[in-house]
């Protein structure tokens, strides 16, 4: 029984260490999203934190309402890329820990 306890404890430590590593990777990663015609570029980290927003002069000339729509479009694309990367890394982590495919789907 003691061996089982030690094995479970070691597995928990491995999971914690690997999860922290993945979180650090995601925090350091950047994902760019663009609107139509690439007039706006939104950049988010791998944990969906806004990093920067770049707006071209041409976008500024379109007016506030259109500019707002373009910013939203770029942000959504960056967010989608960031979330996809997070899911991929969590799936890779789960597989490396021997979990069956699909078991990490709840790690969103």
Average pLDDT metric: 87
Given helix and strand content, the structural type is alpha+beta
Low-confidence stretches: none
Following the backbone from N to C, one meets helices and strands in this order, namely HEEEHH
What CATH calls the topology of the domain at 27-97 is Ybab, Chain: A
Strand fraction equals 15-25%
SS field, number of helical segments: 3
Largest sheet: 3 strands, antiparallel
Shape: rod-shaped
In CATH, the architecture of the domain at 27-97 is 2-Layer Sandwich
Number of strands: 3
Radius of gyration: 19 Å
Major sheet: arrangement of strands = 1-2-3
Could you please describe the fold and organization of this structure?
It is found in: Plastid, Chloroplast. Pfam families: YbaB_DNA_bd (PF02575). This protein has 108 residues and is of the alpha+beta class. The protein has a domain at 27-97: Nucleoid-associated protein YbaB-like domain (Ybab, Chain: A, 2-Layer Sandwich). The chain is built from 3 helices and 3 strands, in the order H-E-E-E-H-H. It has helices at 2-28, 57-60, 64-96; strands at 30-34, 40-45, 50-55. A 3-stranded antiparallel sheet has the order 1-2-3. Helix 1 (2-28) packs antiparallel against helix 3. The longest helix is centred in the last third of the chain and has 33 residues, at 64-96. The two termini are 34 Å apart.
Descriptors for this entry?
about 110 residues, alpha+beta, 3-stranded antiparallel beta sheet, about 60% helix
């Amino acid at each position: 029984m003691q061996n089982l306890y030690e094995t479970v404890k070691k597995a928990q430590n491995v999971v914690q260490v690997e999860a922290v590593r993945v979180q650090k990777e995601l925090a350091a990663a950047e994902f760019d999203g663009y609107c139509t015609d690439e007039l706006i570029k939104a950049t988010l980290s791998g944990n969906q934190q806004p990093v920067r927003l770049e707006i071209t002069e041409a976008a500024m000339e379109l007016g506030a309402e259109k500019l707002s729509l373009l910013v939203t479009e770029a942000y959504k694309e960056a967010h989608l890329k960031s979330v996809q990367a997070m899911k991929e890394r969590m799936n890779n982590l789960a597989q490396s820990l021997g979990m069956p495919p699909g078991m990490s789907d709840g790690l969103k």
